[in-house]
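Quick start: what a row looks like.
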Amino acid sequence: MFKLILNTYKTSFSGLSKETWLLSIVMMFNRCGSMAVPFMGLYVTQSLHRSEIDAGLIITLFGVGSILGSATGGKLTDIIGFRPVQILSSIIGGLLFILFSTITHFSTLCVLAVVISFFSEAFRPANFTAVAHYAKEGTITRSYSLNRLAVNIGWSAGISMAGIIASINYKLLFVVEGGVSILVGLAILFLLPQVKDFIKKAKENRSNMVILKPWQDKFYVQFILLTTLFITCAFLMFRVVPVFFKEQWHIDEFAIGIIIGLNGAIIALFEMIMINKIEKKRSPMLFIIIGSVFFAVSYLLLSAPIVFHILTAVLTIVTFTIGEM
């Protein structure tokens, strides 16, 4: 099995550009630096001793900032380029995370949650644009696959470390995340080559584009609405469920980090092999339906009468991850 995994990835990622590898490494550390997000709710309830309602408010505001940041990051990438957006969002976001660790006033934390997530998510569209720019001809799909692999490795490692750090000190979690984010920005500043005439070329490409109106495509709109609902359910697993594990099942932070970290590890190891095995053998819609069923089962496990909480938590994450893949 290990040899199969190794050969699959070796074949998939050979011949990619040096910049593509650098961007993926940067993204890995960026996602590794997202370690504090799943513990945001626990920080509010366990460290600040606020209610679950307040934890839910912080999580919601973090989501609002993420939406705004992702949209704005894409627009700013068109205006000033992907390199400055990645550098600024990483460094400013990192500084704000460190500031977050020093604040105890809840209303201020609510404002910071929006601002921090805004800068954190502004990084991603800029990074995706950079991947497309630096990819060699004929390798763009594999370049994005490497980027996704980096996301999952970073997520798995980050959340596992976060469990250890949170079990020691919650505030330290935000300091470490802020430090990692700043290092990511500095790495891009000093290691990623500057791009000449990117904005000029982007404007030329836009002038030659045929602008389509997605709202006129009813099937597409329906698909996006269903996808939004699906993703909303998915995010609950990493925002709300950690609080459930702690409050209801009394699982400690260290174990929560390891359990949730299984998500990224399983995807990193098996997703590419699964895609190679089942691609084009059935309709994609069938796999979407199967994935949705696994999602539903994972949440039903949370409401089942349970004796062995840690084992059930592991089974929940594994089932959820199969659905995600």
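That is the whole record. The radius of gyration is 20 Å. The chain has one domain: 2-324.
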